[in-house]
Amino acid sequence: MKKSDCGNDLIDVMLTKMMGAAMDFQTSLDKLSDSQVDELNGRDQKNHQEQLKAFDEAYNIDKCYLCGESLDQMRAAKPCIHWLLQRAKFKKKDFPKIYERYGYHNIAAFLRWCANRESPFRT
Ligand SMILES: [Zn+2]
């Protein structure tokens, strides 16, 4: 089976598109108190480790850790971040649906993990 197509150039394109939203997110962070930010960071960190582990395990068997589908499957009823890896089939109009569902941080993390897996210089 063909591995998913997710080079760093794709990540650049997607991250550029998401910049606006990220800045909105930053603005909302600025309004939080210090203790709220600490809580959020702590939770995110734990969550991140768990998600990366789940991503790795699923990726090893060509599955998506978020929706459980094969990485080359695109079911219209379940828009998912893994669709972004299917450059040939992915339609730009689907991006807002995925963005709405998962948000900037999940999408950015997913694309980075994917790129790391396919890079010979894995970090
Ligand atoms: Zn998926």
Provide an overview of this structure.
The protein has 123 residues and is mainly alpha-helical. The protein has one domain. It contains 3 helices and no strands. The chain has helices spanning 8-30, 34-60, 95-118. Helix 2 packs across helix 3. The chain binds zinc ion. Zinc ion is lined by residues 64, 66-67, 69, 80, 82.
Give average pLDDT, whole number.
Answer: 77
- Describe the main β-sheet briefly: none
Distance between the termini: 25 Å
Structural class: mainly alpha
Q: Uncertain segments of ≥5 residues (pLDDT<50)?
A: none
Number of helices: 3
Number of strands: 0
Bound molecules: zinc ion
Strand-residue proportion: under 5%
Helix-residue proportion: 55-70%
Name the shape in a single word: globular
Total discrete domains: 1
> What string, H for helix and E for strand, traces the elements in order?
HHH
Rg result: 15 Å
